[in-house]
Amino acid sequence: MSILTYSLITIPDFATGSKLHNLHGLDNNGAAKALFHLQTQKTGSECLPSYLQQIIAISIILTDNEGEQQRTTLKGDPEIKLLNTFFDIIESYQPTIITWDGEFFNSEVISYRSIKHSLQMSPHYENKENHFDLNNAMVSSSEKTPLEDVATLLGLEAEENRESRAICESYLAGELDDLYAYSETNVLNTYQIYLRYQLSHGKIDEENYTILMGSNKE
Questions:
Q1: Which domain holds residue 166?
Q2: What is the pTM of this model?
Q3: In CATH, what number is assigned to the domain containing residue 25?
Q4: Total domain count for the chain?
Q5: pLDDT at 104
Q6: Cα–Cα dist 6/41, whole Å
Q7: Are 195 and 186 in contact (CB under 8 A)?
Protein backbone atom coordinates (compact mmCIF):
# COMPACT_ATOMS: atom_id res chain seq x y z
CA MET A 1 0.00 0.00 0.00
CA SER A 2 1.20 3.51 -0.75
CA ILE A 3 1.76 6.06 2.00
CA LEU A 4 0.50 9.63 2.01
CA THR A 5 1.98 11.99 4.58
CA TYR A 6 0.46 15.43 4.85
CA SER A 7 0.64 18.68 6.81
CA LEU A 8 -1.77 21.62 6.97
CA ILE A 9 -1.22 25.34 7.19
CA THR A 10 -4.23 27.07 8.72
CA ILE A 11 -5.16 30.63 9.59
CA PRO A 12 -8.17 32.06 11.44
CA ASP A 13 -11.52 31.97 9.70
CA PHE A 14 -11.83 35.74 9.91
CA ALA A 15 -15.39 35.91 8.60
CA THR A 16 -16.86 33.34 10.98
CA GLY A 17 -14.89 34.66 13.93
CA SER A 18 -16.11 38.19 13.24
CA LYS A 19 -19.73 37.02 13.12
CA LEU A 20 -19.45 35.02 16.33
CA HIS A 21 -17.80 37.81 18.30
CA ASN A 22 -19.44 40.85 16.71
CA LEU A 23 -16.20 42.14 15.23
CA HIS A 24 -17.89 43.82 12.28
CA GLY A 25 -15.96 46.69 10.76
CA LEU A 26 -12.54 45.23 11.54
CA ASP A 27 -10.20 44.19 8.75
CA ASN A 28 -8.51 40.77 8.87
CA ASN A 29 -5.61 42.16 10.86
CA GLY A 30 -7.88 43.67 13.49
CA ALA A 31 -10.11 40.60 13.58
CA ALA A 32 -7.10 38.32 14.11
CA LYS A 33 -5.83 40.38 17.04
CA ALA A 34 -9.28 40.38 18.61
CA LEU A 35 -9.78 36.64 18.12
CA PHE A 36 -6.41 35.76 19.64
CA HIS A 37 -7.08 38.10 22.57
CA LEU A 38 -10.53 36.66 23.24
CA GLN A 39 -9.22 33.10 23.02
CA THR A 40 -6.42 33.88 25.47
CA GLN A 41 -8.91 35.36 27.92
CA LYS A 42 -11.10 32.29 27.60
CA THR A 43 -8.52 29.49 27.69
CA GLY A 44 -5.12 30.99 28.48
CA SER A 45 -3.91 30.01 25.00
CA GLU A 46 -4.05 31.81 21.66
CA CYS A 47 -4.72 28.56 19.80
CA LEU A 48 -8.13 28.99 18.19
CA PRO A 49 -10.58 26.07 18.14
CA SER A 50 -10.60 23.89 15.05
CA TYR A 51 -13.94 25.27 13.83
CA LEU A 52 -12.36 28.73 13.56
CA GLN A 53 -9.50 27.56 11.33
CA GLN A 54 -9.33 27.69 7.55
CA ILE A 55 -6.84 25.88 5.33
CA ILE A 56 -4.47 27.77 3.02
CA ALA A 57 -2.06 24.96 2.14
CA ILE A 58 -1.74 21.17 2.26
CA SER A 59 1.75 19.72 1.81
CA ILE A 60 1.89 16.09 0.68
CA ILE A 61 4.51 13.38 0.29
CA LEU A 62 3.12 10.36 -1.56
CA THR A 63 5.32 7.26 -1.44
CA ASP A 64 4.52 4.15 -3.47
CA ASN A 65 5.39 0.53 -2.68
CA GLU A 66 8.74 0.91 -4.46
CA GLY A 67 9.71 3.93 -2.38
CA GLU A 68 9.22 6.39 -5.22
CA GLN A 69 8.05 9.79 -4.03
CA GLN A 70 5.80 12.49 -5.33
CA ARG A 71 5.82 15.78 -3.45
CA THR A 72 3.39 18.62 -3.82
CA THR A 73 1.92 21.51 -1.89
CA LEU A 74 -1.68 22.35 -2.66
CA LYS A 75 -1.80 26.12 -2.43
CA GLY A 76 -2.97 29.35 -4.00
CA ASP A 77 -6.51 28.12 -4.69
CA PRO A 78 -9.80 28.54 -2.83
CA GLU A 79 -10.05 26.21 0.14
CA ILE A 80 -12.79 24.15 -1.50
CA LYS A 81 -10.48 23.34 -4.42
CA LEU A 82 -7.59 22.45 -2.11
CA LEU A 83 -9.79 19.97 -0.27
CA ASN A 84 -11.30 18.51 -3.44
CA THR A 85 -7.83 17.90 -4.87
CA PHE A 86 -6.66 16.40 -1.57
CA PHE A 87 -9.59 13.98 -1.48
CA ASP A 88 -9.13 13.09 -5.16
CA ILE A 89 -5.49 12.14 -4.51
CA ILE A 90 -6.43 9.99 -1.52
CA GLU A 91 -9.25 8.24 -3.35
CA SER A 92 -7.02 7.61 -6.35
CA TYR A 93 -4.09 6.05 -4.45
CA GLN A 94 -5.91 4.54 -1.43
CA PRO A 95 -2.89 5.16 0.83
CA THR A 96 -2.13 4.79 4.49
CA ILE A 97 -2.44 8.38 5.73
CA ILE A 98 0.36 9.57 8.01
CA THR A 99 0.10 12.67 10.20
CA TRP A 100 1.49 14.30 13.31
CA ASP A 101 -1.43 14.92 15.68
CA GLY A 102 -3.76 14.38 12.74
CA GLU A 103 -6.35 12.44 14.71
CA PHE A 104 -7.35 15.60 16.49
CA PHE A 105 -6.37 18.90 14.90
CA ASN A 106 -6.10 17.93 11.22
CA SER A 107 -9.14 15.69 11.10
CA GLU A 108 -11.30 18.18 12.98
CA VAL A 109 -10.33 21.09 10.74
CA ILE A 110 -10.85 19.06 7.57
CA SER A 111 -14.23 17.84 8.83
CA TYR A 112 -15.46 21.33 9.69
CA ARG A 113 -14.25 22.82 6.41
CA SER A 114 -15.74 20.01 4.35
CA ILE A 115 -19.10 20.47 6.03
CA LYS A 116 -18.88 24.24 5.56
CA HIS A 117 -18.31 23.81 1.81
CA SER A 118 -20.80 20.92 1.47
CA LEU A 119 -17.99 18.68 0.22
CA GLN A 120 -18.22 14.92 0.06
CA MET A 121 -15.11 13.57 1.75
CA SER A 122 -13.15 10.69 0.30
CA PRO A 123 -14.53 7.38 1.64
CA HIS A 124 -10.95 6.16 2.01
CA TYR A 125 -10.10 9.25 4.06
CA GLU A 126 -13.16 8.78 6.28
CA ASN A 127 -12.13 5.24 7.25
CA LYS A 128 -10.14 5.70 10.48
CA GLU A 129 -8.33 2.42 9.90
CA ASN A 130 -6.47 4.10 7.04
CA HIS A 131 -4.94 6.74 9.34
CA PHE A 132 -1.78 6.57 11.42
CA ASP A 133 -1.18 9.42 13.87
CA LEU A 134 2.50 9.34 14.81
CA ASN A 135 2.09 11.52 17.86
CA ASN A 136 -0.56 9.21 19.29
CA ALA A 137 1.54 6.16 18.52
CA MET A 138 4.63 7.54 20.24
CA VAL A 139 3.09 9.25 23.28
CA SER A 140 0.90 7.34 25.73
CA SER A 141 -0.05 10.39 27.81
CA SER A 142 -2.44 13.17 26.90
CA GLU A 143 0.49 15.56 26.54
CA LYS A 144 1.30 16.25 22.90
CA THR A 145 4.89 16.74 21.79
CA PRO A 146 5.70 19.37 19.14
CA LEU A 147 6.77 17.88 15.83
CA GLU A 148 9.83 20.14 15.72
CA ASP A 149 11.03 18.87 19.11
CA VAL A 150 10.95 15.24 18.03
CA ALA A 151 12.59 16.08 14.70
CA THR A 152 15.40 17.82 16.58
CA LEU A 153 15.71 14.85 18.94
CA LEU A 154 16.28 12.60 15.92
CA GLY A 155 18.84 14.94 14.38
CA LEU A 156 16.62 16.05 11.52
CA GLU A 157 16.64 19.51 10.01
CA ALA A 158 13.65 21.18 11.62
CA GLU A 159 12.32 24.70 11.75
CA GLU A 160 11.38 26.41 14.98
CA ASN A 161 7.78 25.75 15.94
CA ARG A 162 5.45 28.55 14.87
CA GLU A 163 2.45 29.40 16.95
CA SER A 164 -0.90 30.30 15.41
CA ARG A 165 -0.33 34.04 15.76
CA ALA A 166 3.05 33.89 13.99
CA ILE A 167 1.55 31.95 11.09
CA CYS A 168 -1.33 34.40 10.85
CA GLU A 169 1.02 37.39 10.91
CA SER A 170 3.10 35.89 8.09
CA TYR A 171 -0.06 35.33 6.07
CA LEU A 172 -1.28 38.88 6.60
CA ALA A 173 2.16 40.20 5.64
CA GLY A 174 1.96 38.29 2.35
CA GLU A 175 4.81 35.92 3.28
CA LEU A 176 3.12 32.95 1.63
CA ASP A 177 6.22 31.33 0.18
CA ASP A 178 7.72 31.25 3.67
CA LEU A 179 4.60 29.53 5.01
CA TYR A 180 4.61 27.00 2.19
CA ALA A 181 8.27 26.21 2.91
CA TYR A 182 7.41 25.75 6.59
CA SER A 183 4.62 23.35 5.66
CA GLU A 184 6.95 21.38 3.39
CA THR A 185 9.52 21.07 6.17
CA ASN A 186 6.82 19.82 8.53
CA VAL A 187 5.57 17.14 6.17
CA LEU A 188 9.12 16.00 5.44
CA ASN A 189 9.89 15.76 9.16
CA THR A 190 6.68 13.80 9.71
CA TYR A 191 7.63 11.30 7.00
CA GLN A 192 11.19 10.98 8.28
CA ILE A 193 9.99 10.35 11.83
CA TYR A 194 7.56 7.76 10.47
CA LEU A 195 10.45 5.94 8.78
CA ARG A 196 12.44 5.94 12.03
CA TYR A 197 9.38 4.64 13.85
CA GLN A 198 8.99 1.84 11.30
CA LEU A 199 12.67 0.95 11.66
CA SER A 200 12.57 0.83 15.45
CA HIS A 201 9.46 -1.38 15.38
CA GLY A 202 10.92 -3.83 12.87
CA LYS A 203 8.60 -2.88 10.01
CA ILE A 204 11.52 -2.03 7.71
CA ASP A 205 15.17 -3.04 7.86
CA GLU A 206 18.24 -0.80 8.01
CA GLU A 207 18.90 -1.07 4.28
CA ASN A 208 15.39 -0.01 3.28
CA TYR A 209 15.43 2.75 5.87
CA THR A 210 18.65 4.16 4.44
CA ILE A 211 17.28 4.00 0.90
CA LEU A 212 14.01 5.69 1.84
CA MET A 213 15.76 8.39 3.86
CA GLY A 214 18.09 9.00 0.93
CA SER A 215 15.13 9.56 -1.36
CA ASN A 216 14.15 12.52 0.81
CA LYS A 217 17.18 14.49 -0.28
CA GLU A 218 16.56 16.91 -3.08
A1: 3-214
A2: 0.94
A3: 3.30.420.10
A4: 1
A5: 86
A6: 32
A7: no
